[in-house]
């Protein structure tokens, strides 16, 4: 029988294959990531969360050498995005890019998952809400808005991103203090909110200022109030809710979560990569350009934050009768 | 003037041209592969733009976007497998032509129509970005609903012989569109508790199943009977004759206008434009045999989906808000270079803006040249025997289904839709109405309900909103006119 090098090396390779696989399994975390990491953004394309997610994807590639694919999975107050990540194996290859509306969805039972189904890796941005009107609106202050809403029930069309999320929560709180009730027009992408406002399909938008930054800066959209503790250094001319007599101070985080069963060593690798992003000049420039607070909360602080928010929001939703 | 000179210097520099050529070549491939589309293609290339100048990276990405909208038609025509959702309408007449041995011609029509569409969309962007963006702002939820409803009226035209069968197909499509999480209330519905269905039934699984998998079953079935159906047509020219240009040019232009217009509306885009354009072509040419390999049935959708590229760039450049998933990814690339899209970009970075505007036109030309060279090779597929073709389509389809979300669930879903499509074709139920209704279902439902929330339950909003009123009237006319015409024809016959 003639010597057949092909067959021989093939047999050797076959014999060694299980060994290679086993070794790879044991050191999976050391080599993470070995393939493309999916960044699942739970909102539609365009808008603040989407911009953040894509910047993160680019910096993870640039600073940490990852290969990253971005997917938009909008719908259902974020439940679609959560389900996308939970449908995949808990191997750290699917990162959920989400926002503070997560806890609302869970509190209302709109997101059919538990807080523990996810691990909260890092909160990276925070941004306030604001009350926005078109430049030609007669409303000039928060008081104008509240008084008008009280005296003319259901006259103004108010809306923003997502049903029963952070912005609607701000409106509820404002309504409770100002004694008015309001409907809510949900949008499936935050980028559509300023368009809807500019086109006259809504009268008032409750939105993060960055959703319509071009329009806010050009003066086409006017902000009546902002939910920061003190005046934001990004928008120094916009008065806070607090200084106008409505004590609502809140901001929405944006961050990264993974499947709740992801092992510690993989999460540690993700943390290292995000550390590199946080430390980069590009990231800080981006935060300033997009007018975002850099909160940088690690897993422990982030988990505490979401637990606290869930408790507060559940209590609030119960008190207004939205949840029994 | 200096801006124009600088822009041309960028476009026709070696690196600029190479960016366009690379973008167009990759775009054609990405478009032709089912499961990969323009938005995934652009996001895959973003990492390579890190070290490029903003101008060159934009050239690369917009060329890819443009070429991918075209590339989807290649697999649609040759393999009955729409490479992108926007190529779905092309499949019907495209594959029918291939089966007649005219695959070559179908590819030539698609290439020319795509180029014309891309150029018209690009010219509209160049000269009309500001007024078109004002127009886009006029569209509220009621108007989006009416546009969607108008699109649904083309079910009649897609039904082939039997309107009843078409309506049954459309009802099935709407039913499928309801699966997933409710867009207004956020509660899951019709998901049978399957987490894979929370996002709704993936569009491409339905498309690939109904069009491609079912076709491979049919081919496998007939392959045994018609042995050696090899070499059905020589692989020759990829250019249209002057006569064909004259014949098809009007359809290409009308398709392009429809595509440009629907492209500027966020959330509408090529997936819907292709059907509307095909429907319009059918109404304009009632005598032609659409569905049986009619060149107009390729020219219209292919012109329209490429025209949406220019359209989708309108809100991006004029308002700073992306009009399609792909332009949203392009925003990411701009932000990376420290730039923010929007009207201020015209003042701050005029050369970049004009590079995008003129680059889009250059991309069309380069796409045409690259495809002209490569099509004779690609179209050798039509010389394969049916049995090989059937197996090839099936492999191609399953790969595409899996690469959607990397879920085996999607593969089974696609096979399931393949069986459904096979049964439908056997019972001569048209499959296109299912796809059309699924594409439009989300748009129609979400905006119908949002409009009612806006108006606090009053249906008046659909009539007081001028855009909505116009499209509702058009929908009514498009239902009534064929009825009136057929009654008139009967009366004439009787007389």
From TrEMBL, chain A:
The keyword Hydrolase does not apply. Residues 1-28 form the signal peptide. Keywords: Signal. InterPro entries: BUG, Bug_dom1. It comes from the Bacteria. Belongs to the UPF0065 (bug) family. This is Tripartite tricarboxylate transporter substrate binding protein. It comes from Microvirga makkahensis.
Automatic annotation (TrEMBL), chain B:
Residues 17-436 form the DUF112 domain. InterPro entries: DUF112_TM. The keyword Transmembrane helix applies. Pfam families: TctA. The chain crosses the membrane at residues 20-46, 107-130, 142-161, 167-185, 197-220, 252-277, 316-339, 351-370, 382-401, 407-424, 431-448, 460-484. Keywords: Membrane, Transmembrane, Transmembrane helix. This is DUF112 domain-containing protein. The lineage of its organism: Bacteria, Pseudomonadati, Pseudomonadota, Alphaproteobacteria, Hyphomicrobiales.
């Amino acid at each position: 029988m003639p010597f057949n090098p092909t067959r021989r090396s093939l047999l050797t390779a076959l014999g060694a294959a299980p060994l290679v696989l086993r070794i790879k399994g044991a050191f999976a975390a050391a080599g993470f990531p070995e393939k493309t990491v999916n960044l699942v953004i739970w909102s539609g394309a365009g808008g603040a969360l989407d911009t953040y997610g894509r910047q993160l994807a680019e910096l993870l590639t640039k600073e940490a050498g990852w290969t990253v694919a971005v997917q938009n999975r909008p719908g259902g107050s974020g439940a679609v995005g959560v389900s996308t990540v939970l449908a995949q194996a808990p191997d750290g290859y699917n990162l959920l890019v989400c926002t503070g509306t997560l806890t609302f969805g869970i509190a209302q039972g709109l997101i059919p998952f538990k807080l523990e189904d996810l691990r909260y890796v890092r909160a990276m941005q925070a941004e306030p809400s604001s009350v926005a009107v078109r430049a030609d609106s007669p409303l000039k202050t928060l008081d104008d808005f509240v008084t008008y809403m009280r005296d003319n029930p259901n006259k103004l069309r108010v809306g923003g991103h997502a049903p029963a999320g952070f912005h609607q929560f701000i409106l509820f709180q404002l309504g409770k203090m100002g004694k008015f009730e309001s409907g809510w027009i949900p949008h499936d992408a935050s980028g559509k909110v300023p368009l809807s406002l500019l086109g006259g399909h809504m009268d008032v938008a409750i939105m993060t200022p960055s959703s319509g930054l071009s329009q806010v800066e050009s003066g086409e959209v006017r902000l009546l109030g902002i939910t920061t503790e003190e005046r934001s250094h990004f928008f120094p001319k916009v008065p806070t809710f607090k200084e106008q007599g409505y004590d609502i101070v809140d901001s929405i985080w944006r961050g990264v979560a993974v499947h709740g069963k992801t092992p510690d060593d993989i999460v540690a690798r993700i943390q290292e990569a995000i550390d590199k992003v946080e430390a980069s000049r590009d990231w800080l420039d981006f935060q300033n350009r997009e007018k975002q607070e850099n909160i940088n909360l690690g897993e422990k602080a982030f988990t505490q934050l979401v637990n606290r928010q869930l408790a507060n929001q559940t209590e609030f939703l119960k008190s207004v009768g939205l949840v029994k | 003037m200096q801006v124009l000179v600088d822009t041309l210097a960028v476009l026709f520099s070696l690196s600029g041209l190479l960016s366009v050529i690379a973008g167009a070549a990759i775009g054609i491939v990405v478009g032709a592969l089912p499961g990969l589309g323009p938005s995934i293609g652009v996001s895959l290339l973003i990492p390579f733009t890190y070290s490029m100048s903003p101008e060159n990276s934009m050239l690369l990405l917009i060329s890819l976007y443009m070429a991918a909208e075209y590339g989807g038609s290649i697999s649609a025509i040759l393999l009955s497998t729409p490479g992108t959702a926007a190529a779905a309408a092309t499949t019907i007449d495209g594959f029918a032509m291939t089966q007649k041995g005219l695959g070559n011609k179908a590819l030539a029509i698609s290439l020319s129509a795509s180029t014309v569409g891309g150029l018209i969309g690009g010219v509209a962007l160049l000269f009309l970005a500001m007024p078109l963006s004002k127009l886009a702002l006029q569209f509220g939820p009621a108007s989006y609903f009416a546009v969607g409803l108008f699109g649904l009226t083309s079910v009649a035209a897609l039904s082939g012989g039997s309107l009843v069968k078409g309506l049954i197909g459309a009802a099935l499509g709407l039913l499928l569109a309801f699966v997933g999480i409710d867009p207004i209330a956020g509660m899951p519905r019709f998901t049978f508790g399957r987490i894979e269905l929370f996002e709704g039934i993936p569009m491409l699984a339905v498309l690939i199943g109904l069009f491609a998998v079912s076709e491979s079953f049919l081919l496998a079935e007939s392959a045994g009977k018609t042995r050696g159906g090899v070499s059905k047509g020589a692989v020759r020219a990829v250019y249209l004759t002057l006569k064909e240009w004259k014949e098809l040019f009007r359809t290409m232009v009308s398709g392009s206008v429809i595509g440009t217009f629907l492209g500027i509306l966020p959330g509408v885009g090529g997936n819907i434009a292709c059907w509307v354009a095909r429907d319009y072509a059918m109404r304009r040419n009632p005598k032609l045999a659409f569905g049986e390999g009619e060149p107009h049935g390729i020219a219209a959708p292919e012109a329209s989906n490429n025209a949406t590229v220019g359209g989708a760039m309108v809100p991006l450049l004029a308002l700073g808000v992306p009009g399609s998933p792909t332009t949203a990814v392009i925003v990411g690339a701009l932000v990376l270079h420290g730039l923010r899209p929007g009207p201020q970009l015209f003042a701050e970075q005029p050369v970049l803006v004009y590079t995008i505007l003129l680059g889009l036109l250059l991309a069309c030309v380069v796409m045409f040249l690259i495809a002209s060279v490569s099509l004779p090779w690609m179209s050798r597929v039509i010389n394969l025997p049916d049995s090989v073709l059937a197996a090839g389509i099936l492999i191609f389809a399953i790969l595409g289904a899996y690469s959607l979300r990397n879920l085996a669930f999607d593969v089974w879903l696609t096979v399931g839709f393949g069986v459904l499509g096979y049964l439908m074709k056997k019972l001569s139920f048209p499959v296109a109405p299912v796809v059309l209704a699924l594409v439009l279902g989300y748009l129609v439902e979400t905006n119908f309900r949002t409009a009612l929330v806006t108006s606090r339950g009053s249906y008046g909003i659909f009539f007081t909103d001028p855009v909505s009123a116009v499209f509702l009237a058009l929908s009514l006319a498009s239902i009534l006119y064929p009825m009136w015409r057929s009654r008139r024809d009967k009366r004439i016959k009787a007389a």
